[in-house]
Every structure is written in structure tokens, then in C-alpha cells.
Amino acid sequence: MQTTFTPEQLQDPDTRESNGILRTCVHCGFCTATCPTFVLLGDELDSPRGRIYLIKDMLEGGKPATEEVVRHVDRCLSCLSCMTTCPSGVNYMHLVDHARHYIKNTYVRPWPERTLRALLARVLPYPARFRAALLGARLGRPFARLVPGASLNAERLRAMFRLAPGALPPPSPLQAPQVHKAAGTRRGRVALLTGCAQQVLAPSINEATIRLLTRMGIEVVVTRDQGCCGALNHHMGDQERAMALARANIGAWSHEAESEGLDAVVINTSGCGTTVKDYGFMFREEPGPWRDRAEQVAALAKDISEVLVQFGYSPSRPAPDLTVAYHSACSLQHGQKVTAAPKQLLATAGFRVKEPAEGHLCCGSAGTYNILQPVIAAQLRDRKLGNIERTGAALIAAGNIGCLTQLAGATLPVAHTVELLDWMAGGPAPPAVEQARQGARHGARGAA
User: Fold this and answer.
1) How many C-beta atoms lie closer than 10 Å to residue 207's C-beta?
2) I want to staple 273 with a disulfide (CB 3.0 to 4.6 A). Which of 134, 267, 295, 406 is the partner?
């Protein structure tokens, strides 16, 4: 693709990077076949190729973003399925992230949307605020259907109430800053990203991770001063806040790596993992020490499934006679290119693993997408659940809290992959297992 950026424009490092990405695109259109929004909507401008044209025109012109550009970029899930498909290696992730930052700086959204985005940016990354917000949303949940109107803002409000869980688990003391000693001889030492929303919605995931790793002889450190990875703000174009959150993590983990040593920074939320593994790029223009630390942390970052394969996971219980539908989170399969490890681990643990059709398509969660684009998100969720149910599985396993939240509450129970692996290696059974077995019993009685 030819570009016409001026030498002055190319002085900006983000524009210079986007220019290189745009020149890589050969207009082939392979990306359209695997783009969830194009599959649903059939609009070229809601495909990666269409958005690339819009972004190119916006950036080259140096003009404020228009409503049309914003609408189509906002509909992008950042699922990165296009990057898996692209034969030319177009780094669409960095391009669309730049576009979102540019939009935030040049486009004035209607005040209800500005308010909602500011609320999400200031609440979701902070567990205490998020817990308080969810408690308030839970009180309003019965009245969600009374929200009037068919506007996008009305749909967003209803989606926020609908996504709020009916009950919240208590905070887990295991997530507080501390060192969890390895059982027996220490084989490794890792830091654990405990996350933000996951801490509140499902602390059992971090608990299972800590139990499993320490049982395998791996010391787990929950560092002070770590927090949200920055992904939620980053994908809303709030680059400054995202960088501040990332800087806190980089400082905490690089200090730990330099003092006591780390074999990995373990991440059990794949959306976070994709961002942490990109810290080196995010800090590429920062002064030397921060750039070097960011690259160090990005190199240490590993999904929990990668770490379990590295240290040789093995179960201690007999096979459970359960069929699991493995939902591969977009951030894991497309963002991190981790595809085989989770399925291999589940099979090693004794589960029968099924993969649903259209496994490359997003479930519609995508960070804050199921709030900001609730109609499209619901269509993708229903499509995903239909494909999963046709596998005949008893429960759904996934490696991302966003996907688990999006897919929960339907006909099949959901569990994080690490919770199932921990159970088969001596930990407690996650609630989804008993729900799956009750479903199987009900099904057998119905058939009789």
C-alpha cells in the first residue's frame, strides 16, 4: 500500500510505525473472511481492510477523526484474527491502537459516551472501585429491563446491569502481596499478575494458579505495587493512563527479577498477557532504563499454560469422564499464538477435549466491548454458544476471565482451564464440575 505521509508527520514515532504497517498491506482481503464484524455485518468498512483504508486517510490527512471513522474503528474487537490470517504480516494491533489514541485526541464523543468511557477507565482497573460498582449494579439489576429506549446508550446500560453477577465471592487473602513458598524442593520462581477485574469476579482462578504452581515446586510471588496491566485503558485510546499502569507493573516485576530472580511473569488472563508481552513495544520511545525493563518484563511474560508445559504438569487424580469444550480466547490464539498448550494440558489431565466450529471467531467479550457494543457482542455470544453446544460437551473451559463472563449463564457451566488442571492435580473441584455432572444426570433421567 502506498502512503503519502510528509517528513514532518514521520517525525512522530507512532505515525512512523503506522506508515510501515500500512505499507505492508497488499489489499488481498484474506482478513475479511475471519473478521467477526465483517462476518456479521457484511460491510467492507467493518473489516480490517476497510478500517485500514479509513485509518490511512485519517492519519495522512492529519485531520480530526470523523464520526464514520470512529463508528467503524469502535466496532473492531481487537480480536486479531486478521493477524493470524494475514499472509503479509500486517501488524493490525499496533495500527488500530494508534488509531484509537488518535481518535481520543481529536474527536469529541457525545457526552453520555464520554461519561461512560471515563467511568470504565476509572473503575474497572481498580479492584476496590470495581467491587463497589458491582455491588451497586447488583441492586439495580432487577430493573435492567425497565430501562427505556432502543438507543445504543440504553443498550449499554442494560448490558452493564446484565453483566453484573448476582453475587460476588469474598476477596481472597492469597491475592495480597506475599511470597507463596514452593512445596518441597524449589524448581522455579515466578511472579503472578493477579489482575484487576479477575480479582473481584473470580479470585478462585488466582487461588488455583497459586496452588497448582506451588504444588509443582514453583515459588509464586505476588509483588507489591502491581495492578492492572493497562489493557482496558489502552484499547480505549487512553494511552497515558495505560502507560502509567504498565509502568507500575514493570517497576515491581523488574525489581523482583533483579533482586531474587524470576523464571517468568505468569499471567492467567490472556487479554492481559497479550498486553504485557507488548510492553517492549509500548515503551520503545521511553528513556533507556524503562525501555530495557519493559523489554525484560515482556520477555518474562508467559501464559499459565506455557509455564505448566515448561515445568511438566501431570495429574494425580484418575480421568474424570468429562467432555470439555475448549474455547480459545482470541487474545491467546491470535494475540499470543498460544494454541496447542491448553488443549494438550486438558487432555493430559484426562478430559475429552472438543473444539467448537468457528473457533477463530470472537465470543464478543473483548475487554469493554460487550458494554460499548452490546448488540454485536450479544450476536457473537449467541453464535459462539451455539457452536459450543453442538460439540456435546458438558462444560466450557477458557483461559480468559472476559470470555468466561461473556459465556456464563447459558446452558453449559464455565471454568478457567487452570481450575480444571488444579483439580486434577489435587485441588478442589471447581463449581462448574458439579454443575456439569448435575446436567448429565438430568439429561440421563430425561432420556429415560
Assistant:
1) 20
2) 267
Positive or negative torsion for Cα 144, 149, 150, 151: negative
What is the CATH code for 173-308? 3.40.50
For residue 7, give the DSSP letter. T
- Rounded (10°) CA dihedral 371, 375, 378, 384: -120
The CATH fold of domain 9-106: Fumarate Reductase Iron-sulfur Protein; Chain B, domain 2 (1.10.1060)
Backbone angles phi, psi at 267, to 5 degrees: -130, 125
Q: Is the pTM of this model over 0.85?
A: yes
pLDDT tens-digit readout, 240-262? 999 999 999 999 999 999 999 99
Cα Rg, the chain, nearest whole Å: 22
The answer to whether 193 and 274 are in contact (CB under 8 A) is: no
Strands (E), 46-118: none
Give the sign of the dihedral formed by CA 123, CA 126, CA 130, CA 132: negative
Statement: 313-447 belongs to CATH 3.40.50.1860: yes
Residue 447's pLDDT band (cuts 50, 70, 90): very low
**For the packed helices 111-123 and 152-163, what is the interaxial angle rounded to 10 degrees?**
20
Q: What residue ranges do the domains of the chain occupy?
A: 9-106, 111-163, 173-308, 313-447
Site of grid cell 510471588: 221
Type of residue numbered 444: A
